[in-house]
Amino acid sequence: MKPVTFKDCAAQGELLIRRIKELPKDLTEQKADNHIVGHSETGHHHTINQAGVRFYESDNPTLCYLAVDSEFADLVHNRSFDTHQTLRIPHGIFEIRRQQEYTPEGWRQVID
Amino acid sequence: MDADKIFVSASRHADVWLETIDFGPQQYSHAEIIDAFDEVDYRYKGERPLVLVVDDPAHVAMALFIGAIALTGGRFANQPRGHFVGHLATQLVSQTRGQLGGQFADRLRDRVWRQLRGYFCGQRRDWLANQLTSRLRVWDRIEGQGGLAYRLNRRIQDQLCGRSVYQFFDRLERPSRDKLQHKLLGQLEDQLQAQLWAWLRVPLDSDFQYPIWDRLRGQFRRPLQQQIIQIGARIESCEPWHCVWDVYLAAFYSIICAQIPNQDHWFGKIDLYPIYKAGAWALINLGGLVVVVTRPEAHRDQQWRLHNKHGPAISWGEQKSYWWHGAQVPEEWIIRDELSPAIALNWDNAEQRRAACEILGWDAILSHSGAKMLQRDDLGELYSVDLPDAEGQQFVRVKCGTGRTFAMPVPNSCQTAAEAVALTYGLEPKDYTPEVRT
User: Fold this and answer.
1) Which of A13, A18, A103 sits opposite B409 (nearest CB)?
2) At how many degrees (to 10) do helices B148-161 and B60-76 cross?
3) Within the 388-407 window of chain B, which residues sit less than 8 Å (CB to CB) from chain A?
4) Less packed terminus of chain A by CB within 10 Å, N or C?
């Protein structure tokens, strides 16, 4: 399947990617060859595995950031069935929101 | 040989192996697996070994024990029992010292697994790689941390490490122990000479084997542990025919050998394919004795996802694992009628919650829980459901980019499905504007 392209905002499973103007301050860059953008208990992570990308976690576990310095970066869902199609994230700066759900105790991140 | 020909050769070879890699919903015949050893050409590696087949990897320890006694029996048959026990212990320790190296080492499995995956995943463009990788991913799911195969391998490794090997008989109930022993002995009967077989029946049919086992505990444990510790050093030089091979490993080396036909790689000359085709998953080879673990039964849906709505999707001996269209679920959801709308809608894991809702059926969920649809828009449907501990709990029912339907609990203050969906991302509805959803 060809990667799906977009300009400013797209969703892949429980992840929502939105273009922003600049990165917030005081973020720590996550150094890795394979960035796990969306974690899955069953190992079906959403990942970016290519150069030209800076990935940042924040104090809020449902919010992370991405700077795509290269032409694009592919966000891949690692599952062989019911696969969320790959998103081709264009050059730029993006926030990535991880979906939550409501419980009587408050919001919690969606677990899959 | 030019590259195209090499590749075609490898493709054909791999295609044949694919038949064995596909686990199917079938029981494998012990007799057919044992017979398949007759088809192997032993010119390169001595004589045909003794073969014991087990359906459950947890039974490997008993098979190894009985097999080891069978291998040493002829030499000690005429000696007094006490003397025999001492020699048997020495012999077993000696054998394990020389032959257990490389067995069930995580490092070996991990290394070759990465090799195998990397090799095929690097050729995604062609159909062969696509077929293999899709199957390998299925295996990934079974094999991953917490997966059935991983846990079973840990159990086997624990047993071989000595921590629980001597507890194995104690844990098995006597009828189960006798049944397993009977099955294993039945397999040996046709393979042993009549005289040796007659000898073997005597000690194994009596309680004599248990005192033997008691005596062996102290002497057997430490050398085994030492062997396992030394495995790391032996991995690099392990010989394929003297260690543990599973169907993926065998397929990998077989295919590699097919690509380099002029290289004098002796393993490539031993065709183990008939054994795996007959139903073997792993061969634990001690030289004169091979313990075979049969492949698990696996049930899948049309999209190749693990699935069985009537029972376990994976059965490996006494080990069972239950799946619903690719999501692992508790046993009671499948084989007992213990799933209710309240359990389904309150389940923490979203994938399993979706599976639970599908098992019950959305119509049943909505009708039996007194759900009321409050609103509907392009993003989904907003429901109010009376749950035992949460009256009027609101859920938004949405369809994700893969076409599957999920229910997500949202605050009761939500007025629309769009508002509810936006809130799950911490946004106002006006800010939730995805151009695409996959």
Assistant:
1) A103
2) 30
3) 390, 400-402, 404
4) N
pLDDT number for residue B354: 86
Which tens digit of pLDDT belongs to each residue from B238-270? 344 455 666 766 776 666 666 555 555 555 566
| Residues in CB range of B7: below 8 A, 6 or more apart | B259
Q: Which of B209, B326, B92 is nearest to A82 (CA)?
A: B326
Å from B147 to nearest chain A CA? 9
Strand pairing report for B314-316 and B319-321: antiparallel
Assess B78–A contact: CB distance below 8 Å, yes or no. no
pLDDT of residue B388: 73
**CB-based contact, B328 to chain A, within 8 Å:** yes
Instruction: Judge whether residue A7 has pLDDT over 80.
Output: yes
Residues 39-58 of A with CB under 8 A from B: 41-43
* DSSP letter for each residue of chain A: -PPEE-SSEEEETTEEEEE-SSPPSS-EE---SSEEEE--TTS--EEE--SSEEEEE-SSTTEEEEEEEEEEEEEEE--SSSPPPPEEEEEEEEEEEEPEEEETTEEEE-B-
Check residue A89 and give its pLDDT. Answer: 97
> What residue of A is the nearest CA neighbor of B142?
A42
What span, in angstroms and rounded, lies between the C-alpha atoms of B187 and B190?
A: 7
The shares of helix, strand and coil residues in chain B, as percent rounded to the nearest 5, are: 55, 15, 30
Q: Do A42 and B145 touch (CB under 8 A)?
A: no
Select the residue of B305, B350, B426 nearest A81 (Cβ to Cβ).
B305
Instruction: Output the six-digit token pair for B166.
Output: 């001597």
d(CA A27, CA A24): 7
Query: How far, in whole angstroms, is CA B21 from its chain's centroid?
Result: 12
Q: How many CB atoms lie within 10 A of CB B344?
A: 22
Contact assignment for A41 to B349 by CB distance below 8 Å? yes
Chain A hits for B428, Cβ within 8 Å: none
Beta-bridge mates of residue B300: B306
The torsion region of residue B370 among left (phi > 0), alpha (psi -120 to 50) and beta comes to left
Out of A7, A85, A97, the one facing B401 most closely (by C-beta) is A85
Residue B3, pLDDT > 80, answer no
CB–CB contact B349 A111 (8 Å) = yes
Show Cβ contacts of residue B401 under 8 Å, excluding neighbours closer than 6 positions: A11, A12, A13, A84, A85, B437, B438
Cross-chain residue pair A97–B434, CB shorter than 8 Å: no
Nearest-CB residue to B426 (from A14, A97, A104):
A97
pLDDT, tens digit (0-9, with 9 covering 90-100), for B93-114: 444 433 333 333 344 444 444 5
